[in-house]
Amino acid sequence: MKIAIVFPVMLFSIAASAQSSTDTIKSKGLESVTIVGSMAKSMPGAGQYIGAQKLAQLNQTNINNVLRIIPGVNIRDEEGFGLRPNIGLRGTPVNRSAKITLMEDGILIAPAPYADPSAYYFPTFARMHGIEVLKGSSQIKYGPYTIGGAINLLSTVIPSSFKGFAQLSYGSFATNQQRIWLGNSSKNFDYVFEANRLASNGFKKLSNGANTGFDRRDVMLKLRWHTDEKAKIYQALSVKYVNATEESNETYLGLIYEDYKRNPFLRYSGTQKDKLDLKHNHVSLNHAIIPVKNLSIHTTFYQNNTYRDWARANTFGGQSINNILGDPATHATSYQIMKGIANGEIIYQNAPRTFLALGVQTNADYQFNTCDLNHKLQLGIRYHQDRADRYATFATYQMTNGTLVETDAGVKGNQENQVRNANSLATFISYDVSYKGLKLSPGIRYEKIHLDFQNYGTEDNARLGTALKSAQNELSILLPGIGANYEINPYMSVFAGIHKGFSPPGVPSVSSTTGQANAEESINYELGYRVEKSGFSGQVVGFLNDYDNILGSDNISGGGAGTGDLFNAGNAKIKGFEIHVTYNLLHKNKAYSRIKIPINIAYTYTSAMFQETFVNGGGDWGTGTINKGYYIPFITPHLFTTSIGFENKKFNTTLLCRYTGDTRTKPGQSSLIVPNHQEKYTDVNTLNGFLITDVSANYKLSKMFIVFSTINNLLNNKAIIANLPQGYRPNMPLSFNAGLKANF
Predict the structure, then answer these.
(1) Distance separating alpha carbons of residues 471 and 455, to the nearest angstrom
(2) Quick check: pTM over 0.85?
(3) Which domains does the chain have, with CATH numbers?
């Protein structure tokens, strides 16, 4: 308890300020929100940064296609457009990105990161200025999820002078984007305003020809007031506002293998009314001050409001979707109803959830020198609250001649009626000391969390408390870590780190059959080598995450029953190595000094195994006994991405190849069983590896205008990219996109 009192006095946040590096006044030394940025070369841990120039070259609106150029990132695709990425880092579960720390401009962005961490809202990647990925011991500053790592998305920055940007594009499946932003900085007042729309008709096909795509719209505003540059005490006050809406005609339901082979882009008629309605609002207020030389303090108040209702078919002819997928022959009538070629009853679920996340975080950064030592001290605190209010309702529909007709709207909350609450106090101290080529970075993090669960039951839609079941859980934990970086010479260094990792246990259950979950803890190790010389940049990192009590979850999105319960699976080890190489093939050729041919290689090997026998509670690990030595599913052992480009003053193009290796979908050590006509859906334990090739190009027409195009899946490879949430799901087919950019 003493630590909880001492740390808050030290005034530092879990994340950095609410603006990016070019969003601050560099002349006054205000530290940026960037986790990695230009510090990647000297970090005592692995971190990568993808900036605006690279993003502009790739022209990708799908974050999945970009993150794969960073080693250590594991992704499970779902709907093809990357609207709700399933991301894991260094072997953490990928389902709904629930086991990594997600931020936008240094602020937690998942709808309820402690109480209900599944990221059903993910910021629109098409409006981002950069991405940062942090792994290793330095990440203890960026919790609550400190085992795999953190991803920080950087939004459009406030320009130093008047500037504007506009973009229009159109392509396959009527996919289109319209984006514009305007910004300026004056003596004391700066701003940027942005509006973005991304929409598509979708590449999947319903028999009635209905739209299977989406329409997502974002508006962002940043305003900043600051004192004069020569003010004795420099201060800045900024506000950021984001409003996002999305309507997606998207479903949880994939395909049975036979249907996938006939037409991988089929949508069953029973999903014709499946729809996601999403609304998100964010507001943050940031104050920055430099009270004395070399000391900067940032304080940020933030609030996120998110609403999500994913309405979808739940049962067909009295049978669950998993039963039909597992044995369509036995459940032939239900299967025919699902396809819309037989009449029958469908239970349809509306699943509205209202999320609230708010908090205040303060950070202080102080740098000083003593003799030959350079010191950097970071101190911080964040108080955070979040809440998830779940009301799910079963309604009844009738499939009649291929059309769904509602027959009973149901009573609100008759399937799920609960509230999840979390309060947290998180603090850390980080100290960097450098002597000549050696940098040591010890640090310690403290988390104190209170979790509260209230289940009102399916009969009490007014929430009078007549059948209320509640449970509470409180925990606190210290998370130490230390990293080191040694510069062998100006272009070569080695780094190493060890830290204690942590993931919250989720709200306590009132119905779990496997007992209450404990927090997930691990000891994480890494050892790496960096080199950068003569146009060549390389990094090799080995890592080991040694879990004491790895956590699994029971969510429909992960193939479970949907209770949301978390459960412990005992000890586990996840280990591997990462290789990242970039090189300009024409670096030494003076005759072609104005031309670049950059290559990029990223490879990740991961071995993930349970180290203890346990009885599993459901979700994407299945049910029943799981033995020591079984492989952990959905962690792909081999990931490989390579690209080659051509760049000159007016033109650039990039050819990008992304390989995802064979991926186990069930725990085990048995031989691999992949989808085929002979194997039942429930017997398949592996998805085949696949290769996707993309091409992007940009041509500068004038100082103001650039034309661009992107071809995704150039070779039109067809692959089963996932078997979750329910059934086999295809990758996006060959698609083309072209557009115009304007800088003014």
Answers:
(1) 9
(2) yes
(3) 2-743 (2.40.170.20)
